[in-house]
Every structure is written in structure tokens, then in C-alpha cells.
Amino acid sequence: MTNAKLGEALRLLGIGHAAGQVYLALLELAPAPLSAIGAAAGLSDAELAAAYGALVDAGLASAAEKGGDVVAPVPPTAGLEVLARHRAAEVEESRLTVGGAFEAFRRQRLATYNDHLVEVVTGDAIGPRIRRAWASAREQIRQFESPPYFPLSGATDDALATLARGVTQRVVYSRESLEVPGHLKEVIEPCVNAGEQARVLPSVPVKLVIIDEAYALVSLSIKEADVHNTMLIVQPCGLLSALVALFEQFWQKALPFHGRTTRPGGLPPADRRLLWLLAGGASDEVIAREMGISRRTLFRRLQILMAQLGAANRFQMALQAQRCGWL
Q1: Which residues are in the HTH luxR-type domain (predicted)?
Q2: How far apart are CA 298 and CA 296, in angstroms?
Q3: Does the structure show a pLDDT above 70 at 93?
Q4: CA-to-CA distance for 192 and 251, rounded, in angstroms?
Q5: 0.70 cut: is pTM over it?
Q6: Rounded to an integer, what distance in angstroms lies between the CA atom of residue 143 and that of residue 209?
Q7: Average pLDDT, the chain
Q8: How far apart (Å, rounded) are the C-alpha atoms in residues 71 and 5?
Q9: Domains of the chain (ranges plus CATH)?
Q10: Residue 256 to residue 236: CA distance in whole angstroms
């Protein structure tokens, strides 16, 4: 690691420039008299005393006895943990302070500045705002997902990264989402396998993403007119509360798209995928295409599943599969 990179890392942890220079000198010369460390860092006695004291307080250096005894750095594990927590607390406090200041401004100047609670975003500005929204999520993302899709490279990677950070993702997919060629295999299934909670309905009322309780993204996509370059950002207000309630209502109605197998012996992944598509309302043609099999093979698999579940038709099969935990 270069001295410049280490110095920057210390700065980000709250260690000042002078203390950083002393720490670099410690790593190069220690164990050594404190006076030699100060000379290498180019500091006066007063500057050295303050800088070295800061390192001791941070748990990065041993305390020097009066008279300038030999000093050395100490294992930084505990000190770094304290510094990291302190910096995290400072960042969180700053975030709350800035957010609070803006909210005070919004409340006081709403009438004067016509501060709209709904922002309209269009064109090339949509992609960066979407990516920034996913990155800002702290606890939960709720989403209605359906075509047409805004062309945004890396969207699936963003969703997987958000899941990896421990953010809960609940998504209600429309049946049309399952029918877009490649969308199930390349987008939906990777997210479900990574922990996304997915459900499906024949249709969803709007394309929607709700970030925590902070704001919502509403697409104005109109399939018939092929309009997909306008998005609304809804800030905390009655409209946002209504969108949250709308999502929760449809979430309760939707059919789970992923679940644990509870039937002894489990279920082969191919058959589970078949049931997912069937429960989502996908046509036989779409199911056969997504699974890479012929319609004849599809019908044969359906007959076997119905026999396993004791079902006389597909509707009964879907009900029995859900009861068995296959959906």
C-alpha cells in the first residue's frame, strides 16, 4: 500500500494529516524514540505531542512516557473498530441533519417556492435516478413489475447487489413479465434465487418501485403508445401512503412465485419452474419456450404432476401444489 493511499484511509477514519504523518513514520522507524518519529514527520514538539496523542487516543499507538521513551504502533483491530463506528455515527448524524434541514425548508417555503411533492423525470435522466434509488434503499423495496421495460444496463446486477446488502425485496410480477423472452431466466429467477420475495398476478395496475418509506418511482409507460421515457418521483405525502397501501393490497392477492419444498423427496427444479410458469398464467407456448421443451413433452410432464398430486385438472393441480409448498 502506498503512503498516499494509507494517508487517505486514515483521513477517512478521522485521523488528521499530522497524526497520519506520525503514523507513517511509526510504521517505517518504530520502535524508536518519539523525538526521532517527530523529526521524520517534520513536526515541532507541540505538533508532535498533539498528533501522537491523537494516535494514542485512537488506539493506534502505545502511550509515550514523559521524557520521550521508545514508542511503537499497536495492533489496530480494536482501535479501527472504534474509529469506524465513530465515523459511521458521524455520517448518520450528518445525513439526519441535512435531511432535517431540507424538510424544514420544504415546510416553511412550500407556498413560496411551489415545492412539488411529485417530480417529473424524463429522458436520459431516468436511468441514473433509478440506479440511485436502488442504491439508496436501506430496509425494503416494494415493486410492481411489468413490461414495457426501460432500457437500463446493469439493472439486474443492481437488484442482486441490493439483496446482498440485506435489503428486503418484494416484487409482484405481471403475467406479461413471464412471457417476455429471456426475462424469466435472465432477470426474475436470479433475483428469486438470491432471496427476492416474488409473487405473480395476471396484471398489475402500474409500474411502481417504493424505496423504504422514503419515496416512490412511478413509470408513465403506456404500452399502446410505446411511451417509456417519463417517470414520477413521489415524495412523502398522502399519495405515497396510497401507493404503499395499493402495493400491500395486491401483494395479499398475488400468488407466491417461490417457496420451499415441503413434500417428502422434494421437487425437481424443472418441475418447480413449470409450476411457477403455470401459476403465473403463462400460456403453453410460453412455458414450452422458456423450458426449452416441446409442447408434447410439456403435456406429458403436466400429466405426471397431476397424477402425483391427485389432481383431475390444472386448476386442482395448482391448488394442491400450493398446499404442498411447491409454489
Answers
A1: 264-321
A2: 5
A3: yes
A4: 16
A5: no
A6: 4
A7: 80
A8: 24
A9: 3-74 (1.10.10.10), 118-256 (3.30.870.10), 269-323 (1.10.10.10)
A10: 29
